[in-house]
Amino acid sequence: MSGNTNVTVVGGGYAGVMAANRLTRRDDVNVTLINPRTAFVHRIRLHQQAAGTGEAVVEYRDVLAEGVRLVADTVTRIDAAGRGVSLASGGTLGYDHLIYAVGSGSAAPEVPGAAEFTHQVSTLEEARRLWSALHATPSSAVVTVVGAGPTGIETAAELAERGRSVTLVCGAELGPYLHARGRRSVARRLAALGVTVLAGPGTEATAVTRDAVRLRDGRELPSAVTVWTAGFGVPDLAARSGLSTDAVGRLLTDETLTSVDDERIVAAGDSAAPSGLPPRMSCQAAMPLGARAADTVLSRIADEPPATFNQVFGAQCISLGRDAGIFQFADKYDVAVWLSIAGGPGAKLKELVCTGVVKQLAKEAHRPGGYRLHLLTRGDTRRRLLRAA
Ligand SMILES: Cc1cc2nc3c(=O)[nH]c(=O)nc-3n(C[C@H](O)[C@H](O)[C@H](O)COP(=O)(O)OP(=O)(O)OC[C@H]3O[C@@H](n4cnc5c(N)ncnc54)[C@H](O)[C@@H]3O)c2cc1C
Q: Which of 177, 201, 227, 341 has the lowest tally of Cβ within 10 angstroms?
């Protein structure tokens, strides 16, 4: 064994890969990334994977630094006291520092019938299953998408643009995050694609059967394929390992992203809850959180005080098929403002974001320490206000 410091990153999504790459700044750090698959899943393209308009799998060799050891396995337990993790394959692995970046997946739907009769698009396997289900169904059959957040809107638009007959069940409002002006623009695009949008009181799905979706107002919508996009959940690994979590199951940390239970464990991405006030679950937050988590560990190794988390959100970007999109700007409190870029330019911006994310990871792999978005100061004001509230 060398005198090097061993850092284990659990989860090879946006946050985990960013963190692992950044940790290679130091030659005396051995970085191990544990992830169930041997390829990176570019989740923000999963609706395209399901519709057959894009590929969400990226080879790790294209985004991961050469110095990172990739272990294809699943962590089943973290032993904080013993500084080790148990693997599904049966082995264990010790660490000096651990970065917890297990991300998110679909929330278990509680509506009767939803677990049995709906598809989801949160993981690669789910997206591939939805693609197969769509291919086994006549193209004229109705597809119902439940949930009108960004994932639901993107999925509905992508499928409608491919000629599917789509109903979007909003439950309440279409795109709750959007400014009214942006929402109108999205509604126009969905109408042009032929999507039936059911929004407002009474449109909450209350039951799902093999071939229908029932709404609270009593309507029963025929549905050959139903896609459930209402909400994300997180893996229960932290809770199962006896670590403190928020109510959803994200690892509870301080503002340096350090676990409130153990200085050797740092969290990033969708599975982190800094001060119990997690930022919006997004790739947009996962990348800077990954960089911050790595910096916290590097500071500890250097015996320096780690800096605090500082999230900057400026927008939400939603694709509306391949030909249109919306880039909805937000203020420093992550509240949508009147300004948005829609249509073809919106689609181009969204595509720039999707390709840019992979490029940023690759850049950090080749020049660790180059990523700087988490060092902007604007987000700090918002965190201070949130904590004071
Ligand atoms: C269809 C779709 C579209 C989206 N579009 C956008 C968008 O446009 N913009 C945006 O900002 N966000 C978007 N998101 C959300 C975004 O994908 C997530 O917020 C983001 O993936 C979170 O990154 P992460 O690194 O925290 O986790 P993930 O990307 O989920 O990665 C976590 C990794 O950890 C692995 N893992 C889990 N458990 C274990 C374990 N026990 N042991 C080892 N490894 C484990 C997982 O397999 C996975 O590889 C979209 C999501 C979906 C589903």
A: 201
